[in-house]
mannosyl-glycoprotein endo-beta-N-acetylglucosaminidase
Amino acid sequence: SSAQPRNGLISPPLLQPAAVRNTPLFLQYLTAQLHQQVPGGLVLWYDSVVQSGQLKWQDELNDQNRVFFDSCDGFFTNYNWREDHLQRMVAQAGERLADVYVGVDVFARSNVVGGRFDTDKSLELIRKHGFSAALFAPGWVYECLEKSDFFQNQDKFWSLLERFLPTHSICSLPFVTSFCLGLGTRRVCYGKEQAVGPWYHPSAQETQPLFGEHKLAGDSRGWVKTHCCLTDAWHGGSSLLLRGLIPPEVDSVAVRLFSLHIPVPPKVFLSMVYKFEGSTDVQVALELTTGDASSCHVGGMLVLNETGSRHSPRPLRVPPTRLARWASSCGQQLSGGWIQRCYEVNLRGCLLQDLLVSFSRPPGSREEESFICRLGEIQVVDASSLLAPLPRVQNVTISQIRWLPLITGSEGLPTRLLLSCTLHWSYLLLRARCFRIHCWKRTGSSSSVAESPETEKPTFLGLAFANQYRVVDLAVEAAGFGQDGRVEFLVEPVPREGFLVPQAEWGKAVLLFSVPQ
């Protein structure tokens, strides 16, 4: 009989007795194979079919479906549960409480505890009993609410769930983010507009802050709110907008952006690219918190209070010569009105815990201060990594070549061609933010060793986030008789630390072509 869809999942209405007997064995086999082929992969059984083979949603783990739970990594319950279902499941799950994923329909269809902006009510009960959660259709925020308010509604939805969700800390350096969402109304590269028009590239998304709002404790009216904004960008398509208020009774307000869990090297450099909206004398700075390790020693920093572990890094005033490429823009006004500040911190035996941005009132002012600040980029970099030479793009190859005529001349021969091909190269991906692909196109003499026109600016083709790039329908002038056509492709690495790599160090590959004889 045919399968019946339910809330986007397809469940068979009835399994034959033989199929029911074989299903646990199949689940065991599937689970073992998945673990072997995809480390970290999970097989979850959805609460639909019971051990008799009938389609009966139970809204819980019980004796009628436990055989499937015992044969795979976990169990995904249906959504129409109440707290008594959870109470019964505690005994059923035993030591595998976390392997039971209690279903939550964000659309709040049928008889559910909470959905939509009340989804936190469901999460609260689930966490109370120690289970995992399976959020179904969080696209409700986009599908059912005003599209123009999507970012604000998205922040509101997830902030309500924040206390019930695990925080994934940043665990390695370098840590670099421009807050790009992987989309935008234009594309910007280090403050310079690269292309105008909407774009979307999931691989371009960079790490987003987890903490969207901070209010001062007690009766103070101070606050800071953050949200992603497509209006302006330093690199990519978006930036982080911070709005806040410094009340008269305090000197500063701060918001935690990222949780860190990094045993730090002896020296760390930090960088922040920012600009204020409108005229203001409010000052902005990066701050770090360190763990409670008894051996932690902090040097080269101003400790904000003697009992805490929150520190303001010392500005990096005169960078060493070998760091000149990284620090060349520190303290300067950049393209688009952006400003870059660089900091250094000397640590020994410490664990970085949090990264914050603080806003301080102007010296001597006791007035209420409001501000709007835009963050374009934050970097936390191991100083030793800036002393090592940058790797080079190597072994650039051209394959899967296809030519199509675009314009045909009076003699029936094409005068313009469309070229499609695939570029491959070697580079350690962990060291690159992305790759910018360029080309030169020229026709001329039959010399196959013609030099590239170094004084000309190459044509930018696009971005790659892997060691390959597909060129599609690139318009090229056809070569005349006795001439070679030449297309030179250039692969520019964009290091995570934000260096601009000189063109002489880009990877290159040349494609020569001629008219068939």
Residues 17-37 form the longest helix (21 residues). The helical segments are 17-37, 66-69, 83-93, 119-128, 140-144, 150-161, 324-327. The first strand starts at residue 4 and ends at 6.
